[in-house]
Amino acid sequence: FGKILDFLRVKHLNSLGLCGEPSRPSVCEHKRDMFETVVRYYFPGESSTLFMGIESNVLMNEARKNSVYDATLVTIRNLGSHTDTGVYINTIVADLVSQGYAEVEVRNAVSYLANEGNIYSTIDENHLQFAE
After folding, report:
1. Does the pLDDT value for residue 25 go beyond 90?
2. Is the confidence at residue 39, as pLDDT, over 80?
3. Backbone angles phi, psi at 10, to 5 degrees
4. End-to-end CA separation in angstroms for the chain
5. Does the structure show a pLDDT above 90 at 92?
6. H/E stretch holding 128
């Protein structure tokens, strides 16, 4: 957390014209995940690029997107394995929201996975099943 505070202090001094532009904090490879977690928590969304750069933020967003796709598939496969009617969309959303995903992420993942043919609707558009 100290590196973040130091960076912000120097960034402020730079805005006052008292010093040069600071470089982004460097972090040991074995502490990178913890650093990125702290940055994402305290500086959500685009503000995290201030510390990690655009390319790192794009990679994190891509990893998060793949993560919600995978979690959605696993949830539908697990909950749907006991029924032919499929899993109700709100059940999928509730399960994944309890795991820390946002509802909009889950609904977007369901839409994407349906378009890709990984899942399909059963008795209506709100009941989904894993495509084997």
Report:
1. no
2. no
3. -65, -35
4. 46
5. yes
6. strand 127-130
Its pTM stands at 0.53
- Cα–Cα distance, 118 to 112 (Å, whole number): 9
What's the half-sphere exposure (Cβ side, CA atoms, 13 Å) at 21? 4
**76 with 129: CB under 8 angstroms?**
yes
Q: How far apart are CA 28 and CA 26, in angstroms?
A: 7
Of 37-46, 58-67, 87-96, the least confident: 58-67
Spell out a b/e string for 53-86, using b for 16 or more CB atoms within 10 Å of the CB, else e: eeebbeeeeeeeeeebbebbbebbbebbeeeeeb
Rounded alpha-carbon distances, angstroms, from residue 77 to 6, 57, 72, 99, 127: 47, 30, 8, 16, 13
Nearest to 128 by CA among 116, 109, 114: 114
